[in-house]
Amino acid sequence: MNFQVSPLSEALGVRIDGFDFAADLSRSEREKLTALWLEHGMLMIRGANANPQTQIGFSKLFGELEAHPLKTIRSGDYPELMELNSEDSRTNPVAVWDGEEWVGRLGWHKDLIYTAKPNRGAILRAVKLPEVDGQTGYADQAKAYDALSDEMKARIDSMKVVYRFEVNLYNMPFLDTSGYIAGPGAPQKPADVGFPDFPDSRYPLVLTHPETGRKILNICPMFLECIDGLDKAESDALLHELVAHVTRPEFAYLHAWQEGDMILWDNWRFMHSAPGVKPGAKRLIHRTTILGDVVLGEAIA
């Protein structure tokens, strides 16, 4: 297959055009895709024959797939697919942000960071899109680490950071909720959305990528709780500084979807976000999840 590779943006990622998702890839083509993913951490693939079957097959090139624990958001025909549907009020309650109503807005996070074993990666495919809004944001924590001062790198090198599972945004101390007003369907506790209570998890603040060896600034605003062993005032001050750093625009990319686009990202290295859509907008994204096969943190009993 003669697909074309180019930079996705000035900040990060790779764009692949002319791809045929239904084609049988050669060994060298599979190796090229894997090498691009490991080097850049994010691939945006645009081409022909993007559908549930080919998304599942393409996803399996990068590892074993994991079904979402909530059956209510799995595809009925394809259990490996998770359906992110803006019209599903159970998973997308309306909330007010900065005076406007939005559905499906999510701050910067990494999947399963509140457990010791986050997902390896994931793929999103655009199935149905609204006329406006509905983008997805991605941010590279390896680039964020590289841009730290030598003094800061030395300071945080051996620190551990604690993540806590929460569904109530007001209980996330490092997520900016200054313009947020929860809607009537906003969950208050994990059981409200069918999740168990996970124990807190502790990670290296500077995470070494298990496959590439790159250093990663393992900080994202959602679920972030504290730095282990520091008093609250010092921990809060340092985490606010690091959150401000890791969310700088030069480490991020906001993708404006076209139908059929697939984006693969490295969940060990990247965090992601969703600005959301207006109530009534029709947005459907299919997601496949690559199982995390390495324990990166530890559960705190």
Explain this structure:
The chain has helices at residues 27-40, 52-59, 141-146, 150-156, 232-246, and strands at 4-7, 14-20, 42-48, 82-85, 94-97, 100-103, 106-109, 121-128, 136-140, 160-163, 180-181, 201-204, 206-208, 215-217, 224-227, 252-255, 262-266, 270-274, 284-290, 298-299. By secondary structure, the chain is α+β, with helices and mostly antiparallel strands. The protein has one domain: Clavaminate synthase-like (Double-stranded beta-helix). The mean pLDDT is 94.
Summary tags:
single chain; 301 residues; alpha+beta; Double-stranded beta-helix; 7-stranded mixed beta sheet; 4-stranded antiparallel beta sheet; 5 helices; 20 strands; globular
Total strand count, please? 20
Output the CATH homologous superfamily: Clavaminate synthase-like
CATH architectural arrangement: 4-Layer Sandwich
The largest β sheet comes out as: 7 strands, mixed
How helix-rich are the residues, as a percent range?
10-25%
> What structural category characterises the helix and strand content?
alpha+beta
Q: What is the percentage of strand-forming residues?
A: 25-35%
Gross morphology is globular
Radius of gyration: 19 Å
- How many domains would you count in the coordinates? 1
The CATH topology is: Double-stranded beta-helix
The top level CATH class name: Alpha Beta
Mean pLDDT reading: 94
Q: Uncertain spans, ≥5 residues at pLDDT below 50?
A: none
Number of helices in the DSSP assignment: 5
Euclidean distance between termini CA atoms: 50 Å
Q: Strand arrangement, largest sheet?
A: 1-2-3-17-8-19-4
